[in-house]
Design goal:
single chain; mainly alpha; Helix Hairpins; 4 helices; 0% strand
Length: 124
Amino acid sequence: MRVMLMPDIHAPLTIADAQRAVDQWIRTIGVRYFSPLTNMAVLAEECGEVARVIARTDGEQSAKPGERLDLADELADLLWVTMAIANQHGIDLTEAFARNLEKKSTRDATRHRDNPRLSETQAN
């Protein structure tokens, strides 16, 4: 059995560090990656779990007796499976995120600011 060196949880964690930690965990403790289709199903499942928590904490639904409502943990699960999918496809999420932020910043430079539906008087 290989010993896994996990990042220091108290030190800042980069996206690249997190992707490496997910890869190392999957290859050691998790044995191997699930198929890409299985990981897509897991991603959808985790999105549903985030939705369930928000429906109960911010929406009209009430929690079931003993139900755990940990949004932070569910969002971390989403990040985990997103990183697993990125790793399987050779995607550097640091680069991808930077490109995506640039795209949104250019495309939407004034779009949201100029949207009357987003004015403060319309906020809930």
